[in-house]
Protein backbone atom coordinates (compact mmCIF):
# COMPACT_ATOMS: atom_id res chain seq x y z
CA UNK A 1 0.00 0.00 0.00
CA UNK A 2 1.32 3.43 -0.90
CA UNK A 3 1.30 5.81 2.03
CA UNK A 4 -1.78 8.03 1.66
CA UNK A 5 -1.18 11.62 0.62
CA UNK A 6 -2.10 14.17 3.26
CA UNK A 7 -4.80 16.70 2.45
CA UNK A 8 -3.71 20.16 1.35
CA UNK A 9 -4.27 22.39 4.40
CA UNK A 10 -3.05 25.90 5.03
CA UNK A 11 -0.10 25.37 7.43
CA UNK A 12 -1.58 27.81 9.96
CA UNK A 13 -4.48 25.36 10.45
CA UNK A 14 -2.29 22.31 11.04
CA UNK A 15 -1.99 21.43 14.74
CA UNK A 16 1.44 21.97 16.12
CA UNK A 17 0.86 19.42 18.90
CA UNK A 18 -1.37 16.36 18.58
CA UNK A 19 -2.22 14.33 21.69
CA UNK A 20 -3.24 10.82 20.72
CA UNK A 21 -5.02 8.40 23.07
CA UNK A 22 -4.22 4.99 21.63
CA UNK A 23 -7.40 3.33 22.84
CA UNK A 24 -9.57 0.37 21.88
CA UNK A 25 -6.92 -2.34 21.58
CA UNK A 26 -8.59 -4.69 24.03
CA UNK A 27 -12.02 -4.41 22.40
CA UNK A 28 -10.53 -4.92 18.96
CA UNK A 29 -8.98 -8.20 20.11
CA UNK A 30 -11.97 -9.42 22.11
CA UNK A 31 -14.30 -8.86 19.15
CA UNK A 32 -12.13 -11.33 17.28
CA UNK A 33 -11.99 -13.91 20.06
CA UNK A 34 -8.36 -12.98 20.77
CA UNK A 35 -6.63 -12.08 24.05
CA UNK A 36 -6.48 -8.34 24.75
CA UNK A 37 -2.72 -8.39 24.19
CA UNK A 38 -3.28 -9.16 20.49
CA UNK A 39 -4.84 -5.72 20.18
CA UNK A 40 -1.83 -4.05 21.77
CA UNK A 41 0.41 -5.91 19.34
CA UNK A 42 -1.60 -4.60 16.40
CA UNK A 43 -1.19 -1.08 17.76
CA UNK A 44 2.58 -1.12 17.28
CA UNK A 45 2.51 -0.70 13.50
CA UNK A 46 -0.40 1.73 13.79
CA UNK A 47 1.62 4.06 16.03
CA UNK A 48 4.46 4.06 13.52
CA UNK A 49 1.99 5.00 10.79
CA UNK A 50 0.72 7.84 12.96
CA UNK A 51 4.27 9.18 13.18
CA UNK A 52 4.56 8.90 9.38
CA UNK A 53 1.24 10.70 8.98
CA UNK A 54 2.50 13.59 11.15
CA UNK A 55 5.69 13.76 9.11
CA UNK A 56 3.65 13.73 5.88
CA UNK A 57 1.35 16.49 7.13
CA UNK A 58 4.33 18.73 7.82
CA UNK A 59 4.13 21.47 10.48
CA UNK A 60 3.19 18.96 13.20
CA UNK A 61 5.93 19.45 15.78
CA UNK A 62 4.79 17.18 18.60
CA UNK A 63 2.89 13.90 18.69
CA UNK A 64 2.19 12.73 22.24
CA UNK A 65 1.13 9.10 22.39
CA UNK A 66 -0.65 7.83 25.50
CA UNK A 67 0.72 4.32 25.90
CA UNK A 68 0.28 3.53 29.62
CA UNK A 69 -1.52 5.63 32.20
CA UNK A 70 -0.93 5.85 35.94
CA UNK A 71 -4.34 4.17 36.23
CA UNK A 72 -3.44 1.25 33.96
CA UNK A 73 -1.71 -0.47 36.91
CA UNK A 74 -5.24 -1.47 37.90
CA UNK A 75 -5.32 -4.03 35.10
CA UNK A 76 -4.56 -7.70 35.59
CA UNK A 77 -1.03 -8.57 36.58
CA UNK A 78 -0.53 -10.38 33.30
CA UNK A 79 -1.74 -7.46 31.14
CA UNK A 80 0.46 -5.02 33.07
CA UNK A 81 3.44 -7.32 32.65
CA UNK A 82 2.71 -7.62 28.97
CA UNK A 83 2.39 -3.86 28.51
CA UNK A 84 5.66 -3.18 30.32
CA UNK A 85 7.65 -5.70 28.27
CA UNK A 86 5.88 -4.61 25.12
CA UNK A 87 6.65 -0.90 25.64
CA UNK A 88 10.30 -1.74 26.14
CA UNK A 89 10.41 -3.92 23.01
CA UNK A 90 8.53 -1.45 20.81
CA UNK A 91 11.06 1.25 21.70
CA UNK A 92 13.95 -1.06 20.98
CA UNK A 93 12.47 -2.26 17.70
CA UNK A 94 11.75 1.21 16.34
CA UNK A 95 14.27 3.62 17.76
CA UNK A 96 16.75 3.30 14.84
CA UNK A 97 14.01 3.73 12.28
CA UNK A 98 12.63 6.76 14.17
CA UNK A 99 16.15 8.17 14.34
CA UNK A 100 16.52 7.77 10.57
CA UNK A 101 13.28 9.70 10.15
CA UNK A 102 14.74 12.57 12.19
CA UNK A 103 12.17 11.95 14.95
CA UNK A 104 13.10 13.06 18.46
CA UNK A 105 11.79 10.63 21.06
CA UNK A 106 11.07 11.88 24.56
CA UNK A 107 9.38 10.32 27.58
CA UNK A 108 6.68 11.93 29.66
CA UNK A 109 5.73 10.06 32.80
CA UNK A 110 6.40 9.14 36.38
CA UNK A 111 9.47 7.10 37.24
CA UNK A 112 8.50 5.21 40.42
CA UNK A 113 6.92 1.84 39.70
CA UNK A 114 7.80 1.90 36.00
CA UNK A 115 9.97 -1.07 35.05
CA UNK A 116 13.64 -0.15 35.05
CA UNK A 117 14.12 -1.80 31.66
CA UNK A 118 11.42 0.49 30.21
CA UNK A 119 13.06 3.60 31.71
CA UNK A 120 16.41 2.47 30.33
CA UNK A 121 14.97 1.95 26.85
CA UNK A 122 13.26 5.35 26.99
CA UNK A 123 16.47 7.04 28.06
CA UNK A 124 18.44 5.32 25.31
CA UNK A 125 15.92 6.40 22.67
CA UNK A 126 16.00 9.94 24.08
CA UNK A 127 19.76 10.06 23.97
CA UNK A 128 20.02 8.62 20.47
CA UNK A 129 17.49 11.04 19.00
CA UNK A 130 18.09 14.14 21.13
CA UNK A 131 19.51 16.25 18.31
CA UNK A 132 16.86 15.37 15.75
CA UNK A 133 14.90 18.26 14.38
CA UNK A 134 11.79 16.58 12.95
CA UNK A 135 8.64 15.55 14.80
CA UNK A 136 8.99 15.06 18.56
CA UNK A 137 7.33 11.82 19.63
CA UNK A 138 6.45 12.01 23.33
CA UNK A 139 5.94 8.50 24.64
CA UNK A 140 3.59 8.92 27.58
CA UNK A 141 4.29 5.88 29.71
CA UNK A 142 3.21 5.74 33.34
CA UNK A 143 1.76 9.15 32.62
CA UNK A 144 -1.16 10.75 34.42
CA UNK A 145 -2.16 14.41 34.25
CA UNK A 146 -2.89 14.58 37.96
CA UNK A 147 0.30 12.73 38.87
CA UNK A 148 2.21 15.23 36.73
CA UNK A 149 0.71 18.14 38.66
CA UNK A 150 1.39 16.44 41.99
CA UNK A 151 5.01 15.80 40.99
CA UNK A 152 5.38 19.40 39.80
CA UNK A 153 3.93 20.67 43.08
CA UNK A 154 6.31 18.53 45.12
CA UNK A 155 9.31 19.83 43.19
CA UNK A 156 8.12 23.41 43.51
CA UNK A 157 7.53 23.17 47.24
CA UNK A 158 11.02 21.69 47.66
CA UNK A 159 12.48 24.69 45.85
CA UNK A 160 10.33 27.05 47.87
CA UNK A 161 11.50 25.46 51.12
CA UNK A 162 15.08 25.85 49.95
CA UNK A 163 14.40 29.54 49.38
CA UNK A 164 14.80 29.29 45.61
CA UNK A 165 11.30 30.50 44.73
CA UNK A 166 8.73 32.67 46.44
CA UNK A 167 5.09 31.58 46.27
CA UNK A 168 4.06 35.01 44.98
CA UNK A 169 6.40 34.61 42.01
CA UNK A 170 4.71 31.41 40.79
CA UNK A 171 3.02 31.92 37.44
CA UNK A 172 1.53 29.61 34.81
CA UNK A 173 4.81 29.86 32.95
CA UNK A 174 7.00 29.09 35.95
CA UNK A 175 4.76 26.20 37.02
CA UNK A 176 5.05 24.66 33.58
CA UNK A 177 8.82 24.50 34.06
CA UNK A 178 8.17 21.75 36.63
CA UNK A 179 6.12 19.53 34.33
CA UNK A 180 7.64 16.34 32.91
CA UNK A 181 8.46 18.06 29.61
CA UNK A 182 8.78 21.81 30.12
CA UNK A 183 9.39 22.18 26.38
CA UNK A 184 6.08 20.53 25.46
CA UNK A 185 3.79 23.05 23.75
CA UNK A 186 0.10 23.25 24.54
CA UNK A 187 -1.99 20.58 22.86
CA UNK A 188 -3.83 21.84 19.79
CA UNK A 189 -5.62 18.66 18.73
CA UNK A 190 -6.64 16.06 21.31
CA UNK A 191 -7.51 12.95 19.34
CA UNK A 192 -9.14 9.88 20.79
CA UNK A 193 -10.29 6.95 18.71
CA UNK A 194 -12.29 4.00 20.15
CA UNK A 195 -15.59 5.79 20.78
CA UNK A 196 -14.78 6.93 24.34
CA UNK A 197 -15.34 10.61 24.89
CA UNK A 198 -13.14 11.47 27.83
CA UNK A 199 -9.60 12.56 28.53
CA UNK A 200 -8.75 9.72 30.94
CA UNK A 201 -6.24 11.99 32.69
CA UNK A 202 -4.13 12.74 29.61
CA UNK A 203 -2.21 16.03 29.41
CA UNK A 204 -4.69 17.91 31.59
CA UNK A 205 -2.63 21.06 31.97
CA UNK A 206 -1.46 21.17 28.36
CA UNK A 207 -4.94 20.54 26.91
CA UNK A 208 -6.67 23.50 28.56
CA UNK A 209 -7.58 24.88 25.11
CA UNK A 210 -7.19 21.78 22.97
CA UNK A 211 -9.74 20.96 20.30
CA UNK A 212 -11.23 17.56 21.07
CA UNK A 213 -11.82 15.14 18.20
CA UNK A 214 -13.33 11.76 18.98
CA UNK A 215 -13.56 8.96 16.46
CA UNK A 216 -15.29 5.60 16.72
CA UNK A 217 -12.56 3.52 15.09
CA UNK A 218 -10.63 1.27 17.48
CA UNK A 219 -6.92 2.06 17.55
CA UNK A 220 -5.79 -1.17 15.81
CA UNK A 221 -7.97 -0.14 12.83
CA UNK A 222 -6.75 3.47 12.90
CA UNK A 223 -5.07 4.61 9.67
CA UNK A 224 -3.24 7.73 8.45
CA UNK A 225 -6.53 8.73 6.83
CA UNK A 226 -8.17 8.87 10.28
CA UNK A 227 -5.46 11.24 11.39
CA UNK A 228 -5.91 13.36 8.28
CA UNK A 229 -9.68 13.44 8.88
CA UNK A 230 -9.08 14.61 12.46
CA UNK A 231 -6.74 17.35 11.25
CA UNK A 232 -9.31 18.46 8.65
CA UNK A 233 -11.91 18.64 11.41
CA UNK A 234 -9.46 20.60 13.57
CA UNK A 235 -8.75 23.01 10.70
CA UNK A 236 -12.45 23.94 10.59
CA UNK A 237 -12.69 24.83 14.28
CA UNK A 238 -12.88 28.40 15.45
CA UNK A 239 -10.37 28.74 18.29
CA UNK A 240 -11.08 31.71 20.47
CA UNK A 241 -9.08 31.11 23.67
CA UNK A 242 -11.64 33.06 25.63
CA UNK A 243 -11.62 36.06 23.33
CA UNK A 244 -14.58 37.34 21.33
CA UNK A 245 -15.22 39.56 18.35
CA UNK A 246 -18.45 41.58 18.23
CA UNK A 247 -19.35 42.23 14.61
CA UNK A 248 -22.27 44.52 15.44
CA UNK A 249 -21.21 46.54 18.47
CA UNK A 250 -20.78 50.29 17.95
CA UNK A 251 -17.15 51.40 18.00
CA UNK A 252 -16.08 51.67 21.59
CA UNK A 253 -13.55 54.30 22.51
C1 LIG B 1 -5.47 1.13 24.97
O1 LIG B 1 -6.34 0.10 24.66
C2 LIG B 1 -4.10 0.64 25.35
C3 LIG B 1 -3.76 0.86 26.75
C4 LIG B 1 -4.50 1.40 27.66
C5 LIG B 1 -2.47 0.39 27.16
P1 LIG B 1 -7.18 -0.60 25.80
O2 LIG B 1 -6.36 -1.72 26.35
O3 LIG B 1 -7.65 0.39 26.79
O4 LIG B 1 -8.39 -1.19 24.98
P2 LIG B 1 -9.92 -1.12 25.37
O5 LIG B 1 -10.24 0.33 25.60
O6 LIG B 1 -10.08 -1.95 26.60
O7 LIG B 1 -10.62 -1.67 24.19
C1 LIG C 1 -6.38 5.65 28.36
O1 LIG C 1 -7.15 4.59 28.02
C2 LIG C 1 -4.96 5.21 28.56
C3 LIG C 1 -4.24 4.81 27.36
C4 LIG C 1 -4.71 4.75 26.15
C5 LIG C 1 -2.87 4.48 27.57
P1 LIG C 1 -7.92 3.69 29.09
O2 LIG C 1 -8.57 2.61 28.31
O3 LIG C 1 -6.99 3.28 30.16
O4 LIG C 1 -8.97 4.71 29.70
P2 LIG C 1 -10.42 4.44 30.28
O5 LIG C 1 -10.29 3.39 31.33
O6 LIG C 1 -11.27 4.01 29.13
O7 LIG C 1 -10.86 5.78 30.79
MG1 LIG D 1 -9.27 1.58 26.85
TrEMBL record:
Residues annotated to bind substrate: 24-28, 36, 40, 69-71, 73, 75, 192, 198-200
Entry-linked CDD domains: Cis_IPPS
Keyword Magnesium applies: yes
Organism, scientific name: Corynebacterium glaucum
HAMAP family: ISPT (MF_01139)
Family note: Belongs to the UPP synthase family.
EC main group: transferase
Residues binding Mg(2+), per UniProt: 23, 211
Transferase in keyword set: yes
Pfam families: Prenyltransf (PF01255)
Cofactor binding note of this UniProt entry: Binds 2 magnesium ions per subunit.
UniProt function note: Catalyzes the condensation of isopentenyl diphosphate (IPP) with allylic pyrophosphates generating different type of terpenoids.
Gene Ontology CC terms: cytosol; plasma membrane
Designated name of the protein: Isoprenyl transferase
Cofactor: Mg(2+)
Active site: 23, 72 (proton acceptor)
Swiss-Prot/TrEMBL GO biological process terms: polyprenol biosynthetic process
Subunit structure and binding partners: Homodimer.
Xref: InterPro entries: UPP_synth-like (IPR001441), UPP_synth-like_CS (IPR018520), UPP_synth-like_sf (IPR036424)
Keywords carried by this UniProt record: Magnesium, Metal-binding, Transferase
EC number(s) on file: 2.5.1.-
GO molecular function, one term: Z-farnesyl diphosphate synthase activity
Amino acid sequence: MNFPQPPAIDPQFIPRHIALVMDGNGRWAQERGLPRTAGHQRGEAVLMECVDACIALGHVEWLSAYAFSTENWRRSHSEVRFLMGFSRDVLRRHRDELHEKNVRVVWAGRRPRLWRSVVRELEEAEELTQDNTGVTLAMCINYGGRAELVDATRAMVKDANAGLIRPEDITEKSLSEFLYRPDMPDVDLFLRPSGERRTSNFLLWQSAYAEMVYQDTLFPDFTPQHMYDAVLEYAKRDRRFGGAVDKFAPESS
